[in-house]
Amino acid sequence: MNHSSTEPAETIELLRYLSKVETAAIETELLRDYRFGQQQLIEIWGHACAIAITKAFPLTSLGKKQPTVLVVCGPDQNGSIGLVCARHLRIFEYEPTIYYPKRTPHTIQQDFTVQCEKMDIPFLSYLPTEVQLINDAYNLVIDAILGPETDHTDVKEPYAGILVTLKQVKIPIVSVDIPSGWDVDQVTSDGINPDVLISLMAPKRCATSFTGKHYLAGRFLPYDIQKKYDLNLPEYPGIDCVIEL
Amino acid sequence: MESLYVDARGHAQPQSNGKVESMNQEVPEESLRPWLRGPRARLKLLRLMSGSGAKCGVMLTRLQRPVHCQKEQADATASCSLCGLTGFHLPSTHIHTPICQQLSKVSTLPGKVETAAIETELLRDYRFGQQQLIEIWGHACAIAITKAFPLTSLAKKQPTVLVVCGPDQNGSIGLVCARHLRIFEYEPTIYYPKRTPNTIHQDFTVQCEKMDIPFLSYLPTEVQLINDAYNLVIDAILGPETDHTDVKEPYAGILVTLKQVKIPIASVDMPSGWDVDQVTSDGINPDVLISLTAPKKCATSFSGKHFLAGRFLPYDIQKKYDLNLPEYPGTDCLIEL
After folding, report:
1. Chain A window 115-174: which residues touch B at a Cβ cutoff of 8 Å?
2. What are the Polar residues biased-composition ranges (chain B) (predicted)?
3. For B185-222, how does the pLDDT look when each residue is reduced to its tens digit (9 = 90+)?
4. B120 and B65 in one domain?
5. How close are the terminal C-alpha atoms of chain A, in Å?
6. Which residues of A touch B213 (CB under 8 A)?
7. 3-state secondary structure of A71
């Protein structure tokens, strides 16, 4: 189910949905040829994710007394994006709590962790397996566990266990870039089922059949890359860095 | 006419029988008397006011005597974050109430030393990266420019913008700002005379080049050429870290040119060539100032459009340096002061 961009009817250019290989290639080019920094990209993506969440779940719309949000962060880039997203949500007056079971020795990841700690964002030491506790304590869960770079067939602990827990929560789940555990290239039927998906840069192939709220976030891609990979991104409104697809 | 004497610390001293002239009848009479009696009551009135959305002009007092003492004048240069007016140098019918002075507290603007200290802490203790900070600031600057000079408001046929970038951090922020302006469909042109060997700055340069943003090889000294070709100039030459008494070439010459341009100038963080700690009378005179993180001391007398951009500062730093930043609206990363 491809979405068309806002072009006139004569040339309907379809929005490209990226495969795993293309996603990796674009990122390599951004870092190597366009000299973007990884820290810079993660900051851009995390900020855009936070904006998308404020659009999908405005502060006033949250059901519980406190605007609590659970952010589950994985070990790689997807997790770091979750950390930056949590930090910005704190600035936007949400109350994020982070569950970051496996901290990597990667310096950039560590820096993002310290930034969150210094914003007084609590870090959980374990995730309750009793799903009702999560349902009661938080308004929504942000799934920043696994991204397109992961091998979905080999999901290690503790993430496999976390995904099992997440499949059972009743509160909304928002996934960063792709729903964790999904195959980037095709639809997964037995993975987690988020209510909101925030695609970064361009949507991935597995999102073609996604039926929930779908946002595209991260407005920085140079035109040359957009043309080279034929992305046909939609026009972002005004100065927004997020657009609903 | 009965009036109150408002002393330099903002405490109301009743001169006669303590009646306050009220220009706005919204606030009930019962709350006026408790207000006169102490800090707790002031806070109560503050809650009342913020609840009703009342502006500081709700209650006006009239000074019994002119402000002579220097200390009073110094305190009087605070500006109210509610209504934006500054100090006692105002028409006599609108003088700030103690509530406004409580709210404003802009007198703790960081000078050169505090600005450097905040940045060091951000990098060392809070583990922000320089690249990350410059990206945040550059993006926020670009947003400020779109608010101050919307695409539709630009007079020339093409939405051209000249971005003049200096050698240090201020220049890199200009590069990122130019990149985002390109994404927002402006047509920036960069003049970046002295490229540093700093890797991060080089990266930002490549990012701009790859967005097809033209780089000028020289800046015309003929000012009319600049006036004709561009809608505005973004001054990202020198920041708070520079020694304003020792401005080297080519920047001294560029500043001379900029002083003569007729199109609007928007300065990043502070007007290039100004002294961070005090007002400079003979520097460039921008129409728009985009302060990053917190306004600097020299901005107290800035009379043009003033934005505060860059919404990321951890609360601990805000408290430690007593910054009292205003509340940003919604999810915006900038606010007009």
Report:
1. 115, 118-120
2. 13-25
3. 999 999 999 888 889 999 999 999 999 999 999 998 89
4. no
5. 12
6. none
7. strand
What average pLDDT does this structure show over B326-331? 90
- H/E stretch holding B139: helix B130-148
Same domain, B122 and B53: no
Q: Domain residues for B38?
A: 2-106
Q: Which two tokens stand for residue B243?
A: 């020694």
Distance separating alpha carbons of residues B238 and B247, to the nearest angstrom? 9
pLDDT at B158: 94
pTM of the model as a whole: 0.79
**ipTM of this predicted structure:** 0.89
Closest CA to B23 of B33, B35, B32: B32
Angle among Cα A122, A118, B336 to the nearest 5 degrees reads 110
**Per-window interface: A 180-239 vs B, CB < 8 A:** 219-220, 222-224, 238-239
Question: How many residue pairs bridge chain A and chain B with CB atoms within 8 Å of each other?
Answer: 71
**Claim to verify: residue B65 and residue B138 sit in the same structural domain:** no
Structure tokens at A45: 């993506």
Q: Look at A239 and B146 and tell me if their CB atoms are within 8 Å.
A: yes
Specify the CATH number for the domain of residue B128.
Answer: 3.40.50.10260
* Co-location of B120 and B75 in the same domain: no
Chain A residue closest in CA terms to B147: A239
Closest of B62, B64, B56 to residue B27, by C-alpha: B56
Domain boundary among B47, B81, B106: B106
pLDDT the model gives residue A189: 72
- pLDDT tens string B66-123: 444 444 444 444 444 444 555 443 333 333 444 344 334 444 678 888 889 999 999 9
pLDDT tens digits for range A103-121: 888 899 999 999 999 999 9
At residue B52, the pLDDT reads 37
pLDDT at residue B50, as a whole number: 43
Interface of B with A (CB under 8 A): 125-129, 131-132, 135-136, 139, 142-143, 146, 179-180, 183-184, 200, 202-203, 206-207, 210-212, 311-312, 314-316, 330-331
Q: How far is A149 from chain B (nearest CA, A)?
A: 23
- Give the CA-trace dihedral at B197, B200, B201, B204, to 10 degrees: 140
Number of domains in chain B: 2
pLDDT at B40 (0 to 100):
54
> B101 and B59, same structural domain?
yes
Say if residue B37 is in the same domain as residue B185: no
Q: Is B76 helix (H, G, I), strand (E, B) or coil?
A: coil
Do B151 and B98 fall into the same domain?
no
Mark yes or no for CB contact A239/B143 under 8 Å: yes
